[in-house]
Amino acid sequence: MSAVPVLKKILLWGGILAVGLAVVGSIVGYLVAGWSGVAGALIGTAMAVLFLGITALSILIAGRFSLVAFFGIVMGAWILKFIVFLVLVFLLKDQPWLQPTVMFLCIVVAVVGTLVVDVVVIARSRMPYVSDITLPGDAAGDAPAAPTAGGAEGAAGDKSSR
Q1: CA–CA dist 119, 6 (Å, integer)
Q2: Global confidence as pTM
Q3: What separation in angstroms does the CA of 62 have from each of 19, 71, 131?
């Protein structure tokens, strides 16, 4: 089973969360701080959507490679998100057209919301804990031979089953 359907659901529900947060955050931001509050809400939501997309994309790309490459790609994406976050925060912190508190609160709500989306989607995905495994009896050729009345060697003394 592939993780692609699970990641698609996470992206879908994350997108729905982002639209809702952009609308509610913009309304609250406007009521609290005017148009700078709207800008803060929209930028905070956009940052959260960007980071959610980077995570999902890194997992989709990394799933095609070995386990070592998988962890390298996912960790590289995490470091990229961290650097982009720091750069954006330092570039935007003193902008007069932006309300930083509204932006911060939208980022926090989006992060907590996407964590909830991740947990709910993964918990309901019925994804197996192990993959690429064949249990005895799953395939016709892999089924163990049934014991016979003559013991391990069989009734006719056949030693080929050892």
Answers
A1: 11
A2: 0.70
A3: 28, 8, 16
All residues at 6 or more sequence positions from 13 whose CB lies less than 8 Å from its CB, including other chains: 117, 120, 121
Closest CA to 41 of 18, 28, 25: 25
pLDDT in tens, 43-89: 999 998 898 888 888 988 988 889 899 999 999 999 999 999 999 98
Q: Which of 148, 137, 149, 145 is nearest to 161 (CA)?
A: 145
Instruction: Name the DSSP class of 156.
Output: T
In terms of residues, how long is the chain? Answer: 162
56/51 Cα distance (integer angstroms): 9
Within 8 A by CB and 6+ apart from 69, the residues are: 62
